[in-house]
Specification:
- It contains eight helices and eleven strands.
- 41% of the residues are buried.
- The strands form two sheets. Strands 1, 2, 3, 4, 5, 6, 7, 8 and 11 form a nine-stranded mixed beta sheet that branches. A two-stranded antiparallel sheet has the order 9-10.
- 41% of the residues lie in helices and 25% in strands.
- Helix 5 runs parallel beside helix 7 and helix 6 runs antiparallel to helix 7.
- The longest helix is centred in the C-terminal third of the chain and has 23 residues.
- The protein has two domains: 123 residues, Spore Coat Polysaccharide Biosynthesis Protein SpsA, Chain A (Alpha-Beta Complex), CATH 3.90.550; 80 residues, no CATH class.
- By secondary structure, it is an alpha/beta fold.
- A hairpin with an 8-residue loop joins strand 9 and strand 10.
């Protein structure tokens, strides 16, 4: 059974080569480059990938374009900061050979500064399980800028948890905080486009509930200070998004 590996990126020439090298087992690699101005396109073509270049303001639209460009009946969707270990590649091959289902979730191993952090992820700031292996036509991203919703056709199959996707999520604390800033700015634009930015009290409640869910419910306390930082970022994400949309709408409105 053929599988297409899809990579969606923007100016990722530093991390793209390692990602592509980990996808050599796939029958096809498709790289979608959104408004990239670095050497990503040349690197991808040199690695034998199909390259699709363009400008997509919405994350959902660019990912849907990438899925449409894939030729295989199965698609594995990864990011430039992710690597597929050989053991996971073998699990994927075995799964799609017999699966009657439309999609499967895959374990994600998140690293920050080279440190594997297993606990505490959540609240739209990180996940340990993603639905990235699917039949073409089964997955459709919604029209949003950050963490767009998904529409599925078909049933979910077994989860691939024996081996995880290697994810170099953040380089350090400052990189994590920059990611929070990017995510909340994109979310503010989504809120303004939807015409509903929420309320300050509701987002203050979300800060508290998300913080304790990540720190206690998702066992972030096991990671020490990193768990506290992740829980804080997860809680701040909706509040900062609301405040940016409320206080600086002219900066985030299309």
């Amino acid at each position: 059974m053929r599988v297409s590996a899809l990579v969606v990126a923007r100016d990722e020439e530093a991390r793209l080569p390692a990602c592509l090298a980990s996808l050599g087992w796939a029958d096809e690699v498709v790289v979608v480059l959104d408004r990239s101005s670095d050497g990503s396109a040349a690197l991808a073509r040199a690695a034998g990938a199909v390259v699709l270049e363009g400008a997509w303001p919405l994350e959902g639209a660019r990912r849907n374009a990438g899925i449409a460009a894939c030729a295989g009946p199965w698609v594995l969707e990864v990011d430039a900061d992710e690597r597929v270990p050989p053991e996971l590649a073998a699990d994927i091959r075995r799964t799609i050979a017999t699966s009657p289902h439309a999609f499967h979730r895959v374990r994600v191993d998140n690293h920050v500064g080279g440190r594997l952090i297993l606990h505490g992820w959540g609240g739209s700031f990180g996940t340990t399980l993603k639905p990235i292996l699917f039949r073409k036509g089964a997955k459709h991203w919604r029209a949003q800028r950050v963490h767009p919703g998904l529409d599925w056709t078909g049933t979910e199959g077994e989860r691939l948890t024996a081996h995880g996707l290697h994810h170099e999520l953040d380089r350090d604390v400052s990189d994590m905080l920059r990611r929070l800033d990017r995510y909340s700015s994109a979310k503010a634009a989504d809120l303004l486009a939807a015409g509903d930015i929420g309320t300050l009290p509701s987002n203050l409640r979300r800060l508290v509930s998300r913080f304790f869910k990540c720190l206690i419910g998702r066992k972030g306390w096991k990671e020490g200070g990193w768990g506290v930082l992740i829980a804080l970022c997860a809680g701040l994400f909706p509040l900062l998004s609301h405040l940016k949309a409320r206080l600086e709408p002219e900066r985030h409105r299309d």
